[in-house]
Amino acid sequence: NFQYIAKNLKLKAKNHNSKLKTFSLNTIF
User: Fold this and answer.
1) 21: left (phi > 0), else alpha (psi -120 to 50), else beta?
2) What pLDDT score was predicted for residue 22?
3) Mean pLDDT of 5-22
4) Sign of dihedral through CA atoms 14, 15, 20, 26?
5) How far apart are CA 28 and CA 17, in angstroms?
6) Residue 10, CB half-sphere, CA atoms under 13 Å: how many?
7) Sign of dihedral through CA atoms 4, 6, 11, 12?
8) Would you call 24 exposed, middle or buried from its count of C-beta atoms within 10 A (0-12, 13-18, 19+)?
9) Is the predicted pLDDT of residue 11 greater than 80, yes or no?
10) Rg of the chain's alpha carbons, rounded to an integer?
11) pLDDT mean across residues, the chain
12) For every residue of the chain, which 3-state class applies, written as one string?
């Protein structure tokens, strides 16, 4: 159960990071 939660958190963090990256790229250009 805990591993499942940790996986979900990692996936969410990945999605959040990619969103931030695309957002910063959009603000730069």
Assistant:
1) alpha
2) 73
3) 79
4) positive
5) 16
6) 6
7) positive
8) exposed
9) yes
10) 13
11) 77
12) CHHHHHHHHHHHHHHHHHHHHHHHHHHHC
